[in-house]
Amino acid sequence: MPATAFALLGPTASGKSRLALELAEKLPLELVVMDSAQVYRGMDIGTAKPSAAERAKVPHHLVDLLDPSEAYSVARWREDAIQALAGVFSRKKVPLLVGGTMLYYRALTSGLANMPGADPELRAELDLSAARRGWPSLHAELAKVDPEAAQRIQPNDAQRIQRALEVYKLTGEPLSKIQLRKESPPPFPLKAFALIPERTPLHARIAERFDAMLEAGLVDEVKNLKTRFALHPALPSMRAVGYRQVWEFLEGRFGEDELRNRGIAATRQLAKRQLTWLRSFRDVETVLSPANLAERLANSF
Fold first, then answer.
1. Domain limits of the chain?
2. How far apart, in Å, are the Cα atoms of 134 and each of 108, 157, 170, 281?
3. CA nearest to 66, candidates 36, 88, 100, 86
4. Contacts of 12 (CB under 8 A, 6+ apart)
5. Are 222 and 249 in contact (CB under 8 A)?
6. In percent, how much of the chain has pLDDT > 70?
7. Which of 2, 44, 133, 141 could in theory staple to 49 by disulfide, Cβ–Cβ 3.0 to 4.6 A?
């Protein structure tokens, strides 16, 4: 067995999960999920989470780790992923990372700066300030103390503005400076492949999948989550594509047709960002076909 981990990357709706399951039927693989939304319990429909039957058939790691009312950091995922990968190796199986959260992949392969943990009181203070002044105002504040980070962050990107200001207030150092200090890469080789579909068929699949999510009960899923957990729209879980749009729909901001349009548009934007990430990665091979990838993996054994 190779002492190498493999990764299957690609934009949302590109068919990564289906292909990974097909590969796991032929090869001794265990899947390590690389998805920042599938870590949350109860968020099943809108994340296209593997079903209970699929997870019983093929081991899936890093799914359903915490409640959607909790926060989950890139640093924590990196630690959990390395532990999960090591566990797969110990069972004499081969780990296949599968997902589209490209920040997770970069953190795993390139290391991660030693960042301070979240500070709930400071975050509440920043949220209150944003409610009064607006996130663009806090973005302008960030530009004064960390112009490099502010240049990369959009004026309405609440989550990233909040984190950059939080890091600066906790450490007295700009986030952009701390990010230059990296940890070591993972202690094992990693070979990555990418599914990069053509734009037109990808957009068609995105629309079909979001329609299927709505038909499967995505709106009711969010209603139930709001009943079960202490949620608010600023939480990372509720900022996930699809969930954010359903939350706004439930607040009465727009109707069902607009929910569909916004959900599809947001998913397309997510796919565009994921493809931009993929093009920036080195040593990631494009998958020419599922059969080609199966052959490449089989030849590694």
1. 5-112+183-298, 120-178
2. 34, 11, 22, 34
3. 36
4. 100, 206, 241, 267, 270, 271, 274
5. no
6. 98
7. 44
Separation between Cα atoms, residue 225 and residue 267, nearest integer Å: 21
Q: Quote the radius of gyration of the chain (alpha carbons, Å).
A: 20
Beta carbons within 10 angstroms of residue 230's beta carbon: 9
Q: Which residue type does 126 have?
A: L
State which H helix or E strand residue 210 sits in: helix 199-216
Q: Is the pLDDT of residue 90 over 80?
A: yes
- pLDDT tens digits, one per residue of 183-201: 677 778 999 999 999 999 9
Q: How far is CA 202 from CA 108, 173, 219, 269, 295, in A?
A: 27, 41, 24, 12, 24
- In the 8-state DSSP scheme, what is residue 235? S
Q: Which CATH number fits domain 5-112+183-298: 1.10.3210.10, 3.40.50.1000, 3.40.50.300, 3.40.50.720?
A: 3.40.50.300
240 to each of 41, 62, 130, how far by Cα in Å? 14, 17, 20
Angle at 115 between CA 110 and CA 119, to 5 degrees: 145
d(Cα 140, Cα 291) in Å, to the nearest integer?
50
Q: Which two tokens stand for residue 225?
A: 């989550």
- pLDDT at site 2: 57
**120-178 CATH fold:** Histone, subunit A (1.10.20)
Yes or no: say if 273 and 106 are a contact pair by the CB < 8 Å rule: no
How far apart CA 50 and CA 36 sit, in angstroms, is 14
- Establish how many alpha carbons lie within 13 A of residue 70's alpha carbon, considering only the half-sphere containing its beta carbon: 12
Give residue 71's pLDDT.
83
**Tokens linked to 109:** 């392969």
Which phi and psi (to 5°) does residue 185 adopt? -70, 170
